UniProtKB/TrEMBL annotation:
<dbReference type="GO" id="GO:0005886">
    <property type="term" value="C:plasma membrane"/>
</dbReference>
<dbReference type="InterPro" id="IPR026033">
    <property type="entry name" value="Azg-like_bact_archaea"/>
</dbReference>
<feature type="transmembrane region" description="Helical">
    <location>
        <begin position="239"/>
        <end position="258"/>
    </location>
</feature>
<feature type="transmembrane region" description="Helical">
    <location>
        <begin position="331"/>
        <end position="364"/>
    </location>
</feature>
<comment type="similarity">
    <text>Belongs to the nucleobase:cation symporter-2 (NCS2) (TC 2.A.40) family. Azg-like subfamily.</text>
</comment>
<dbReference type="InterPro" id="IPR006043">
    <property type="entry name" value="NCS2"/>
</dbReference>
<keyword id="KW-1133">Transmembrane helix</keyword>
<keyword id="KW-0813">Transport</keyword>
<dbReference type="Pfam" id="PF00860">
    <property type="entry name" value="Xan_ur_permease"/>
</dbReference>
<feature type="transmembrane region" description="Helical">
    <location>
        <begin position="99"/>
        <end position="119"/>
    </location>
</feature>
<protein>
    <submittedName>
        <fullName>NCS2 family permease</fullName>
    </submittedName>
</protein>
<keyword id="KW-1003">Cell membrane</keyword>
<feature type="transmembrane region" description="Helical">
    <location>
        <begin position="421"/>
        <end position="438"/>
    </location>
</feature>
<feature type="transmembrane region" description="Helical">
    <location>
        <begin position="195"/>
        <end position="219"/>
    </location>
</feature>
<feature type="transmembrane region" description="Helical">
    <location>
        <begin position="384"/>
        <end position="414"/>
    </location>
</feature>
<feature type="transmembrane region" description="Helical">
    <location>
        <begin position="72"/>
        <end position="93"/>
    </location>
</feature>
<keyword id="KW-0472">Membrane</keyword>
Length: 439
């Protein structure tokens, strides 16, 4: 095991990998409850959506661990599942959920081909170092923002858009406990501190009514959503995937989802790599090709099993911060996903308040990379700034990266430094511009 996963070589231990895996799982386990409820709106049976969510995540997380040997967990992506439910199925497209899954499946196939051709890696290599650092920093702020928002510390405000929540409310109290425990244990350099903070906050939330106790147990599995793109649409003789080609307008959604998957993963891999020490001083991710191959295949697998697009989860940074360095932690995450396919109510006890502390500390750790950006050169500094601010303020990694790419190319154009911009940066910037216009 040590030689296969290179545990000692990466200065880790089996204990660190288990703790890291547990931390990652708890930080992303909300998807077990959220994704099925989202897909039910699209018409997917709840039990089928739950089974697809858990097994899609388990299969691809374990694949990432065994093939790429990196602590990057995968599951159905938030954002894309919303597009599937509210845009493709309930919105203007108004397609059957099986057709929506066929669109996701095709997007995964296209992105897998791009990776096999080396295009995805080439785009990453074309990004200036300052922007690579900015992506990780922006995601750090995004993660912290997600934690504070979910924990009731930051709330919506009609006058100022955002405001401070009621810190005397039980939800906020549990969040503050989670942050305090996470920070103190981080200062004391306690192994598994982030995991401990989640457990402590979950327990503290029981008497405060924040931690929901299981009211029922579900032990059944439903694989009826599997092979969704190749199922026949009820009331017709047409296979779901054929509908995508019979309605060419749906191909625009393939492009839109591709852009989201392409660049969300890019940001996530860089962010996790910086925490898990597999990004070098130039911001290059070591041995990235197998990571991208697995992630791209995951998108197609997600559509196939009926779980929406399965993608790399940025919450993996919490596990990396807790000590995960190898794919062994992925095995822990994958096994837990399978277990909780039978007992999801237990995961329902872990509230967003309980994970608030872990996400805030991870955000703090990722923000430290800001010193690696050259703030004296505007052609690098402003695009970095646009990326850092764009990610949390638009609640989208893809949008933030798009702002950075476009502003970088424009600044280099007006300053007469066009030759310094690699061709693929122009292609990516134009693709982002098209995406923004179309959306």
């Amino acid at each position: 095991m040590d030689s296969f996963f290179k545990i000692s070589e990466r200065k880790s231990t089996i204990g660190n990998e288990i703790i890291g895996g547990l931390t990652t799982f708890l930080a992303m386990a909300y998807i077990i409850a959220v994704n099925p409820n989202m897909l039910v709106v699209a018409g997917v049976p709840f039990d089928a959506a739950l089974t697809a969510t858990c097994f899609g995540a388990a299969i691809m997380t374990i694949a990432m661990g065994l093939i790429a040997n990196r602590p990057i967990a995968l599951a159905s992506g938030m954002g894309i599942n919303a597009i599937v439910a509210y845009t493709l199925c309930l919105g203007g497209a108004a397609v059957d959920w099986r057709v929506a899954m066929a669109i996701v499946f095709l997007e995964g196939i296209v992105i897998l081909i791009l990776v096999a051709c080396g295009l995805r890696k080439a785009v990453m290599d074309a990004i200036p170092v300052s922007l690579r650092h900015a992506i990780g920093i922006g995601i750090g702020l995004f993660i912290a923002f997600i934690g504070l928002k979910g924990g009731g510390i930051i709330v919506a405000n009609e006058s100022t858009i955002l405001g401070l929540g009621d810190l005397s409310a039980p939800v906020a109290i549990v969040s503050l406990i989670a942050i305090a425990v996470a920070v103190v244990l981080q200062v004391l350099n306690v192994k598994g501190g982030l995991l401990i903070s989640i457990i402590v906050a979950t327990i503290a939330g029981i008497p405060l009514g924040v931690t929901p106790l299981p009211s029922s147990w579900s032990f059944g599995l439903d694989f009826s959503a599997f092979a969704a793109p190749f199922q026949t649409i009820p009331g017709t003789d047409t296979m779901a995937i054929a509908q995508v080609f019979l309605q060419p307008a749906l191909l625009l959604f393939v492009f839109s989802l591709l852009m989201s998957d392409f660049f969300d993963t890019m940001g996530t891999v860089v962010a996790v790599g910086e925490q898990a020490d597999f990004v070098d001083e130039n911001g290059d991710v070591k041995d990235i090709q197998p990571i991208l191959m697995v992630d791209s295949a995951a998108a197609a697998v997600g559509g196939f099993v009926g779980a929406s697009s399965v993608t790399s989860f940025v919450e993996s940074t919490s596990g990396a911060a807790a000590g995960a360095r190898t794919g062994l932690s992925n095995l822990v995450v994958g096994i837990l996903f399978v277990i909780f396919a039978f007992a999801s109510p237990i995961i329902g006890m872990v509230s967003s308040s309980a994970t608030c502390g872990a996400l805030v500390v991870v955000g703090y750790l990722m923000l430290s990379d800001v010193i690696n950006i050259d703030w004296t050169r505007i052609e690098f500094a402003f695009p970095a700034f646009a990326t850092i601010m764009g990610i949390p303020m638009t609640y989208s990694i893809t949008n933030g990266i798009g702002f950075g790419f476009i502003s970088y190319c424009v600044i280099m154009l007006v300053t007469g430094k066009v030759r310094e911009v690699k061709p693929l940066m122009w292609v990516a910037a134009i693709a982002f511009l098209a995406m923004f216009i179309l959306s």
